[in-house]
Amino acid sequence: MTSEPLINADRLWTRLMALAEIGATPAGGVNRQALSDGEIAAWRRVIGWAGEAGLTPSTDAAGNLFLTLAGRDRTAPPLLLGSHLDSQPTGGKFDGAAGVMAALEAVVSLAGRGETPVRDIVVVAWMNEEGSRFAPGMMGSEAFTGERGMDAIRAARDADGISVGEALDRLHHAFPGMAHRPLGFAAEAYLELHIEQGPLLEAAGCAIGVVTGIQGKKTFQVVVEGAEGHAGTLAQQERRDALAAFAEVASALHAEIGAVDADIKFTIGRVTVVPNAPSVVPSRVSFSIDLRHPENAVLDAAGARIKALCQEKAPPCSVTVTPLVDAPSNVFDPRLRASIAGAARDQQHSAMAILSAAGHDARHLAKVCPAAMIFIPCRDGASHVEHEWAEPDHVAAGTAVLAQVLRELAFAPAIEV
């Protein structure tokens, strides 16, 4: 290890805090949802920083942002590293953004040494990782890896009826001179830094998490259909109350699916009631289900019970269950994990192996190239909240580890698969 710093920690933190000003909320968080004016502004700021170091911006049909440091062999599969710039409506400063800014800092620091890597190095910000404005999430990485088609992606709409296609066209119109890449290309490897979004690193006093993999996830959209009626005149026995049916369905799901074992994570999230009027029997309830487990067999069995339970408990209403996401648990590349652990050891940072309970774009990249993740602690394990926080020293430590692994890969022969 050279004594020369691998990164500029002050520059990293200053830029991360400047990025957090875009979409800043009064409570100190960030509301910068996918393909919004805020994300367009974030693109402009990040592209400006990248341009100062000679990185070239480009995009693709899915609205992913690529910032490229040219290598000696422009035809070789590049190294990819990054995360996402979009946030939850009441999100924090670090979820996604820390990964993009860490990747940019690692590459900018490498470029500043005046050495040309063997292959291109590409910082990437994936489109709509969060899935807060448009569902489901991770659209950009799924499109890139061929797991979801652009027709389906472009057709999705937000709560205001705006389609992803319309928002993508608006994004691309904002950057008329930017080069467009083909959708999906071969990559040598992918690296992603992220806050843990859980309490384990902080509790263990570890600065670095070497992520072993990501637990599996399934999501569903469920619609219960009943019939409207006057709250004062329609007899109880004659009602097809969609909200009452939803209550029965939700109770049964929590009782059975939510009690499978200690590792199951079952969540009913967004719920919409129609007509949502105080004196009208509800005619329609739609809601989302988020189901996660580290073991694919358990996840599959629990997921298979959801439709049956809904159909059993919904009458006299009807119910439709639509699967949205089916993402099995995955394991990250052992050689990259060893490199991350070695870099943490070289830099004298405490480290531990850790399974990711949250989903990340790296899950999809791992299907098409060697991939790995670096976790850093976040205060109280809190994320998707405005008080989300990571210490500057931890952000710098994770970025320095990322930079060392990147440097090892940047001047090494191709990874043998």
TrEMBL record:
Hydrolase recorded as keyword: yes
InterPro entries, per the entry: Amidase_Cbmase, Bact_exopeptidase_dim_dom, Peptidase_M20, Peptidase_M20_dimer
Positions annotated to bind Zn(2+) 2: D95, E130, H384
Molecular function terms, GO-annotated: hydrolase activity, acting on carbon-nitrogen (but not peptide) bonds, in linear amidines; metal ion binding
Names of the cofactor(s): Zn(2+)
The UniProt record lists the keyword S-adenosyl-L-methionine: no
Superkingdom of the organism of origin: Bacteria
Domain (Peptidase M20 dimerisation): residue spans on this chain: 213-315
Keywords of this entry: Hydrolase, Metal-binding, Zinc
Cofactor, free-text remark: Binds 2 Zn(2+) ions per subunit.
Binding-site residues for Zn(2+) 1, renumbered to this chain: H84, D95, H194
Family from the record: Belongs to the peptidase M20 family.
Name of the protein in question: N-carbamoyl-L-amino-acid hydrolase
Species for this entry: Bradyrhizobium sacchari
